[in-house]
């Protein structure tokens, strides 16, 4: 009887998983964006490699590629190396992997969990986790300012009297102030070269941050620091923010039927719809563990 109940639950959960589209649906994009680092107090850190006149030192321009599988909610990315903090070598991110996680709590939504390793000035394998809101991307908005886009959590953070407050505005993909839980054996001080250091469940960031209240009004203490505290490496407890300001459609999986709203044309941008299924996959795993625990307890009784 116990085995039957467990098999039924597993079959039901697997049914939700296999109901995903059978064919791969991989789209590739070029992206432009900005990189912002906040310290453990939520203060923005200036990139000392940027010295040009009238250049905002706190939002370093970045470029790269993004590949997203609309069937599994998984994605990968590349990032063009960029100068940061006057390091002896350009900063680079390797092994960028992403997974759509719905709302992060088992329901549909537009959150994406990302993990990567960051190399900077001889410090290689710094683990970085990040929770992104890809609302604009999933709704088909490829440039900043769309009505369905997400606002970076770093917006409203005070920098200094010269640059004032960060104000990137709504973008297709924005870093949130959600933190991740440690995953795959990662703990503070023991995460170097761990390419999957962050995972579910998500943790609501309640740390104080410097946020704007009204234009011209001195900053006020808010809650939620953009990014996820780095657990190891050259920037312990600092928070890396990657905000995508625009995307350009490059290629489309030839096996997928191209819909009217997503043409295989390099001059037309398109994006997949929101993918809530990976959240169901996560719930399946946690629910299965719970059922196994219940079965074991009943057996011991």
Give structural notes.
There is one protein chain. This protein is an alpha+beta fold and 301 residues long. The chain has one domain. The protein has helices at residues 2-18, 135-139, 277-300; strands at 26-38, 44-45, 60-69, 74-79, 92-100, 111-120, 123-133, 174-175, 178-182, 198-204, 208-211, 220-223, 239-252. The strands form 3 sheets. Strands 1, 2, 3, 4, 5, 6, 7, 8 and 13 form a 9-stranded antiparallel β-sheet that branches. A two-stranded antiparallel sheet has the order 9-10. A two-stranded antiparallel sheet has the order 11-12. β11 and β12 form a beta hairpin. The chain is globular, with a radius of gyration of 21 Å. The two termini are 15 Å apart.
Overview features:
301 residues; nine-stranded antiparallel β-sheet; 32% strand; 3 helices; alpha+beta; disordered N terminus
Question: Can you lay out the helices and strands and say which pair or pack?
Answer:
Blueprint: H1 2-18, E1 26-38, E2 44-45, E3 60-69, E4 74-79, E5 92-100, E6 111-120, E7 123-133, H2 135-139, E8 174-175, E9 178-182, E10 198-204, E11 208-211, E12 220-223, E13 239-252, H3 277-300
Antiparallel strand pairs: 1-2, 1-3, 1-13, 3-4, 4-5, 5-6, 6-7, 7-8, 9-10, 11-12
């Amino acid at each position: 009887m116990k085995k039957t109940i467990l098999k039924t639950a597993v079959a039901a959960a697997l049914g939700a998983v296999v109901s995903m589209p059978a064919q791969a649906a991989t789209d590739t994009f070029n992206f432009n964006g900005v990189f912002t680092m906040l310290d453990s107090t939520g203060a923005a850190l200036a990139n000392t490699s940027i010295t040009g006149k009238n250049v905002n030192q706190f939002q370093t321009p970045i470029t790269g590629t993004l590949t997203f599988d609309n069937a599994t909610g998984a994605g990968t990315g590349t990032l063009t190396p960029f100068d940061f903090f006057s390091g002896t070598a350009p900063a680079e991110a390797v092994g960028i992997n992403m997974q759509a996680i719905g709302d992060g709590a088992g329901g549909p939504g537009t959150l994406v969990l990302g993990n990567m390793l960051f190399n900077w000035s001889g410090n290689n394998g710094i683990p970085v986790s990040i929770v992104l809101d890809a609302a604009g991307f999933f709704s088909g908005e490829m440039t900043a300012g769309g009505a369905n886009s997400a606002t970076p959590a770093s917006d409203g953070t005070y920098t200094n009297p010269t640059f004032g407050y960060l104000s990137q505005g709504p973008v297709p993909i924005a870093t949130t102030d959600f933190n991740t839980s440690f995953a795959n054996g990662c703990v503070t001080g023991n995460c170097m070269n761990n390419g999957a250091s962050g995972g579910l469940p998500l943790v609501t960031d309640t740390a104080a941050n410097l946020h704007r209240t009204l234009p011209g009004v001195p900053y006020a203490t808010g809650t939620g620091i953009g990014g996820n505290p780095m657990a190891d490496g050259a920037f312990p407890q600092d928070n890396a923010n990657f905000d995508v300001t625009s995307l350009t459609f490059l290629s489309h999986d030839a096996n997928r039927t191209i819909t009217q709203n997503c043409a295989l044309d390099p001059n037309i941008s398109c994006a997949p719809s929101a993918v809530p299924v990976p959240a169901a996959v996560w719930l399946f795993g946690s629910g299965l563990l719970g059922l196994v625990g219940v079965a074991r307890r009943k057996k011991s009784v």
